[in-house]
């Protein structure tokens, strides 16, 4: 079998402890070449700890881990040479220009000065920062800094790009622009591993993902598979003044396959949201507002853990 057929990352029983705290509790993961793989979960689920082990910067406490078929505990430098890492916080050098941030970083990987200049030009275009190439980093917007951080992580033409919460803190326009850049990367053959607590981001970017909660994997599959397995086609949201939803729960509980009670609303899981809404109205249920929407990964997480992703 050729190496192309081997998973780029294989984890079996992977664990990470900090003293008595178990951040990652024996997870099994495979990431295949050319796919965008996601870790979806709330803060503290163990996503970043897993990424640091894959990045060969944090030794595992237990289990087995192979990246490019190599053991990070033994072959850390060889693995890191083939990785691109985009950390959760931007670590750009504010004393340098946009272009210099790329060029200096490229020299760390032993690229020649000529190749570094060439690569910087390519990456500035990719990140849509060509017109800001000679500007200082400090005045850039959050979205521009994030694109520059991702561009910098690509300077060594990595086989695998690790992105830890890539769009946290960005406005919707900046997020969508970043998603477009990442989609283009995947199309060009770069394998992506993404951690996120945004369900729409996971749905947009990931071919396959695991839902993590409290250091364990709660479910695995494509976004569509997970939604099909754990939720219904539609969700009817009925909003009330806080506390008012409890009073009408008996009137609607039989209108859906499942009802979730949240502090200010009821979520009715059904194949026909409009039908359920009409039936609720016929029974005298009068919410402040109502919304029929398609199921999302947020609903999957709520089903699996009993709480919202953004609790």
UniProtKB/TrEMBL annotation:
Where does it reside?
A: Cell membrane
Q: What is its main location?
A: membrane
The way this protein sits in the membrane is described as: Peripheral membrane protein
- Matching Gene3D superfamilies, A to Z? P-loop containing nucleotide triphosphate hydrolases (3.40.50.300)
Q: Name one Pfam family in it.
A: ABC_tran
SMART domains, per database record: AAA
The entry's cellular-component GO terms read: plasma membrane
Q: Which parts of the chain are coiled coil?
A: none
Protein name (Swiss-Prot/TrEMBL): ABC transporter ATP-binding protein
Q: Which organism is it from?
A: Solihabitans fulvus
